[in-house]
Amino acid sequence: MHTSVKFWMKTARSQVLPVMVLPVLIGAAGAFAVYETFHLGLFLLTLIGALSAHLFSNMINDLWDYRNGVDIAAEETAAAISTNSRVLPSGAVPERTFSFVTWLFFVIASYAAS
To answer: Whole-angstrom Cα distance, residue 11 to residue 73?
Structure first.
């Protein structure tokens, strides 16, 4: 079983996370402009929540596509563009483990939002 952070970050397609950093930075700058104070704890909680929500979104998409046969259909179609991590179709990790990590990101995002 794969337990390394590097494996899971690649699986969750974390290379696109910078897309989520900018909105959080803009929100923090806006809050600072209005209230003239910066709360590091709230900033980090917001950042962790946004990043976790994005990783959940990536992984739930892969899980849904895998369960509905989209990945296999894409492999069989020459013109199809694969956008998934290829972890589930290749059998690199069990579906149950993948699902657990996926929903763990959701729990982290939900906790950060509450």
So the answer is: 20
